[in-house]
Design a protein that fits this description.
The chain is an all-alpha fold. The protein has one domain (2-132). The protein contains 6 helices and no strands. The radius of gyration is 16 Å and the shape is elongated. The mean pLDDT is 94.
Length: 133
């Protein structure tokens, strides 16, 4: 019974976290102030990884946190490499805001640093959620 309560509490905290991180992530795409290029691209990439780690944890709260962070990191790196390719289908998907937000539109090897930072941030964030729950 205590385990079920803990899982439910973790899911509630994760859902609340997603309610914070999601608009923050989208905001980075529209931000136009100081250091806007860094916020749009690099900070946005970090928050992107945190978002997906929290999303996976929401549905799989008993999964090992390091496995979630590693899987999201690998998939995000593969998506970054996919930006090197341009096909009619990928270009079509990228023509929509959500497609561009998920797939990206330009390869930048420096993004891998922010994916690592996002994975570490997400790991710590979920670790804290598990401790609280």
């Amino acid at each position: 019974m205590a385990v079920l309560h803990s899982v439910k509490k973790a899911r509630i905290i994760t859902a609340l976290s997603l309610l914070v991180i999601t608009p923050a992530g989208f905001y980075t795409k529209f931000y136009g102030g100081p250091a806007f290029e860094w916020v749009n691209n690099s900070l946005g990439g970090l928050l992107y990884v945190v978002f997906w780690c929290l999303m996976v944890f929401l549905f799989f709260p008993r999964a090992k946190v390091w496995k979630i962070a590693a899987a999201v990191f690998i998939i995000t790196c593969l998506l970054e490499c996919l930006q090197l390719y341009s096909t009619r289908f990928l270009d079509y998907l990228r023509s929509f805001f959500i497609g561009q937000a998920i797939l990206g539109n330009s390869f930048n090897p420096a993004d891998f640093i922010y994916y690592v930072a996002g994975s570490i941030t997400a790991w710590l964030w979920i670790f804290v959620i598990k401790r609280i729950a």
